[in-house]
TrEMBL record:
<dbReference type="InterPro" id="IPR029057">
    <property type="entry name" value="PRTase-like"/>
</dbReference>
<keyword id="KW-0328">Glycosyltransferase</keyword>
<feature type="domain" description="Phosphoribosyltransferase">
    <location>
        <begin position="20"/>
        <end position="173"/>
    </location>
</feature>
<dbReference type="GO" id="GO:0016757">
    <property type="term" value="F:glycosyltransferase activity"/>
</dbReference>
<dbReference type="Pfam" id="PF00156">
    <property type="entry name" value="Pribosyltran"/>
</dbReference>
<dbReference type="InterPro" id="IPR000836">
    <property type="entry name" value="PRTase_dom"/>
</dbReference>
<protein>
    <submittedName>
        <fullName>Phosphoribosyltransferase</fullName>
    </submittedName>
</protein>
<keyword id="KW-0808">Transferase</keyword>
Length: 210
């Protein structure tokens, strides 16, 4: 299967599938999702902002996500995994609190004193650079849903097939370009998948703001 050259090319391709959106707000999951979302917002003539999310890691092995939290939302846990690990949401309360602080720091870094966009009654497009387990995307979609938008669309270039199907229950529409059978990691589907910095995110948001 052909690779995306980079996140910008993936965003251009996604934009063509989203042109029917009516006066949308585009929300990107930082950091990688912002690079995908910028060309989408430009093509649609839509405002672009971030929706900050944080993974809730398993304390002995933090790279293993047992849940996630999004700006404006409550923690969303993988209860099946927690049970398998012999844990409960209360077991990771300290991790959740730490991630709330980091989430707030990133919101300040990306948005400063600017208020988040009003979503009630609007069409909202949530964008990320790919879906592996889908934990952060699920938390993001639930946080958006709580703001009572008219429609919620999740748009990603590539995702694990099972994850994509599970997230169809969280969004009104899921737009995904590729669901490869041999999906292992998001980065394997990009020729260039550089890690972005906070400065890169701010530059892309400034570019979108014109």
């Amino acid at each position: 299967m052909e690779l995306f050259a980079d996140r910008a090319e993936a965003g251009e391709s996604l934009a063509g599938r989203l042109e029917g959106a009516h006066d949308p707000v585009v929300l990107a999951l930082p950091r990688g999702g912002v690079a995908v979302a910028e060309p989408i917002a430009r093509r649609l003539g839509a405002p672009l902002d971030v929706l900050v999310t944080r993974k809730i890691g398993y304390p002995p092995s933090p790279e293993l996500g047992v849940g996630a939290i999004a700006e404006g939302g409550e923690p969303v846990f993988d209860h099946t995994l927690l049970r398998r690990l012999g844990m409960t949401p209360e077991s990771v309360a300290d991790v959740v609190e730490d991630e709330r602080h980091e989430l707030a720091r990133r919101v300040r870094a990306y948005r400063g004193d600017r208020p988040p966009p009003a979503l009630e009654g609007r069409e909202v497009i949530v964008v990320d650079d790919g879906l592996a387990t889908g934990g952060t995307a699920r938390a993001a979609l639930r946080a958006v849903r709580a703001a009572r938008p008219a429609k919620v669309t999740l748009a990603v270039p590539v995702g694990a097939r099972e994850t994509v199907e599970s997230l169809r229950r969280e969004a009104d529409e899921v737009v995904v370009l590729r669901t490869p059978v041999d999906f292992r990691a998001v980065g394997q589907w990009y020729a260039h998948f550089d890690q972005l910095s906070d400065a890169d995110v701010l530059e892309l948001l400034g570019k979108a703001a014109g």
